[in-house]
Amino acid sequence: MSQLWGRREFIRIASLGPLGLGLGDYLSLRAQSPAQSDKSCIMIVLDGGMSHLDTFDLKPDAPSDIRSTFNSVATKSPGVRICEHLPRVAQQMDKFAILRSVWGKTAIHFNGVYFLMTGYLPIQSMEFPSMGSVVAKELGLRKGMPPYVLNAMLDHAMGPGFLGSAYSPFWVRSDPNAPDFRVEDLELPVDVDWKTVSDRRALVKQMDDAFRVRDTKGITESRDSFYVEAERIMRSPAVKKAFDIWAEPEPLRDRYGRTPIGQGCLLARRLVESGVRFVTVNAARAIWDTHGDNFNRLQKVLLPEFDMAYATLLEDLADRGLLSSTLVVVSGEFGRTPKINANAGRDHWPRVFSVLLAGAGVKGGQAYGSSDATGAEPKDNPTSVEDLIATIYDRLGMDPRKEYRAPSGRPIRLSNNGTPIRSPLV
């Protein structure tokens, strides 16, 4: 099971128990990995698998049992056409690139999301770290903010794996679109106050005194300082401010859309603006899994919500001067079948699908790679999921070839031997 920051972890911090790994240990570990990049990433996971054939890779000349019922429209970039139900996104085409030849290895939801977020298929003998946790380890904290925030309904494929809970995400469990939205884990539990925290810290200090005389490396003193910093972060007005979505102007919230994905994208912008390195956004589990009634679900709900959220996010980041330093990735765990099934739906299809990349040096206004005439296989510039992950790390200023050592001693390359795309993407 993935390790995630949550209320239990913050209770551990509040009680400062001598066992277990909490935020103090996290801050201690992060000192080993000084930041070398000013980049951030917003990863929008369209869980369930977006239909590439009905969104960013329409095939108007395909047979009737394959082609979409939707028309394509021109975008801001000449020659690049996308679905007619994404009019706002079409006007932001100059800011993002479409990868039309991405391919995966599994048609199973759980395995597909795990593969997308780690670069590895799940195995029983090891938990691989998610991209967010790797970024947390490699780039560390910035501006006193947690480096990795999970604003998602997902609870798998997002944890630190063998890196340990020091690199777990701060998990925002509640819906940013909810009228009572707040991040509870920034508050102490109801039965704990700051005096209690101070008393417990004093008790831990008293227990540690017996070991200080034998501590020749200053470990105890360093840990104490990190617990002090942990408390400072919990008390920090800047951290609380970053999560305060209510501070946003109502018209801007309306532009993003009063939906989970819309307000999730707005919260993600606030977080990267405040210093968070990696934010994962997901509206709901498997909501894009359109086995039945595909076209109605896309036209009436999924595409309008995504159109508002994604287009406004790109425009908002650009207006604030953040797009050049923020990589925005949009992907599902796979695409959907070329052939329309008997329920007017499309089934799972990992053999080719579309991914969107924007910001952090990515040249917008282009479609990279292509699928064949029926959207069934890559045709030009096939891009594996491992290549996609290598590209993400590369854009964040990290070396995708870097290796970690798992507890078993096995070397684990960050991108699982993927090759980053550069020209003409960047």
How does this structure look, described?
Mean pLDDT is 86; it is low at 4-22. The longest helix has 26 residues, at 294-319. The protein has helices at 7-15, 23-30, 87-90, 109-118, 131-139, 194-212, 219-235, 237-242, 250-256, 260-274, 294-319, 385-395; strands at residues 40-45, 72-74, 81-83, 96-103, 148-151, 170-171, 278-281, 326-331, 335-336, 348-349, 353-358, 366-368, 370-371, 378-380, 383-384, 403-405, 411-413. The protein starts with 6 loop residues before the first helix and ends in a 13-residue tail after the last strand. Strands 1, 4, 5, 6, 7, 8, 11, 12 and 15 form a 9-stranded mixed beta sheet that branches. 33% of the residues lie in helices and 15% in strands. It contains 12 helices and 17 strands. Helix 2 (23-30) crosses helix 7 (219-235) and helix 10 packs parallel to helix 11. The protein has a single domain (33-183, 243-413), classed as 3-Layer(aba) Sandwich (Alkaline Phosphatase, subunit A). The chain has 426 residues and is of the alpha/beta class. The protein is globular, with a radius of gyration of 22 Å.
